[in-house]
């Protein structure tokens, strides 16, 4: 007998369909142009510029690491 989590009304399995764009893959389109803008906009304050640039760059790497590990997790199941 199938579990209630696998089946919905009438005993038919329901799959979730994503109708929108995958926003987690579109995030680099937002933070990629921010990096040069930080360098140009904060020329007069080099300490803040370097710290902010490092934080945004680290955030980008962490986001990419999250996406890659998520893909590997899906493939292993």
What's the number of extended β-strand segments?
A: 0
- The helix content is 55-70%
- Name the beta content range: under 5%
Largest sheet: none
Number of domains: 1
Query: What is the residue-averaged pLDDT?
Result: 80
List the total number of helices.
4
Q: How large, in whole angstroms, is the Cα Rg?
A: 21 Å
Order of helices and strands: HHHH
Unreliable spans: none
- Shape, please? elongated
- Overall SS class: mainly alpha
Distance between the termini: 22 Å
List the helices and strands and how they pair.
Blueprint (H helix, E strand, L loop, with lengths): L22 H4 L1 H4 L2 H8 L4 H31 L1
Keywords: Membrane, Transmembrane, Transmembrane helix
Written account of the structure:
The protein has 77 residues and is an all-alpha fold. It has one domain (20-76). Helix content is 61%, strand content 0%. It contains 4 helices and no strands. Helix 3 (34-41) packs antiparallel against helix 4 (46-76). The radius of gyration is 21 Å and the shape is elongated. Keywords: Membrane, Transmembrane, Transmembrane helix.
